[in-house]
Amino acid sequence: MSLKDRLVEDMKVAMKAKEEGKVRLSVIRMARAAIKNAEIDKKTEFNDDQVIEVLAREVKMRRDAIEEFSKAARPEKVKDLEEEIAILMDYLPQQLSEGEIRQLAQEIIDQVGAQGPKDLGKVMGAITPKTKGRADGKVVNQIVRELLGS
Predict the structure, then answer these.
(1) Which residues contact 91 (CB under 8 A, 6 or more apart)?
(2) What's residue 150's pLDDT?
(3) Distance of CA 110 to the CA centre of its chain
């Protein structure tokens, strides 16, 4: 079953759940709309990898919003966004731990022969496709910078 099909099935379940499924239903509808809009922009039907990219972007937007709402002392909005993230994470592949990212980054650094901070672009170019949808880009970048000694 493709990810888009799974979203449709889960949406039906959430609709039947009435009150308990309201948040889940709204998040799934938002995710399906974001996928549909991206498909329209690209003028193509998305496969699972492209759907994962869209969902990862939605998670990232919510994480960024959480920072802003935390600064603005809006705990109720932070809680709502965290709940939305938890629902979206159900559709993303298993996230890499910091240790796994660190290990992968070290392998890539050795593989491309990176010497220092000036080789950040080479390393990020090689590691990004391997972590796409499975790790936050900011975290990956931070770990790579740390390992390169910048």
Answers:
(1) 3, 6, 7, 31, 51, 52, 55
(2) 60
(3) 26
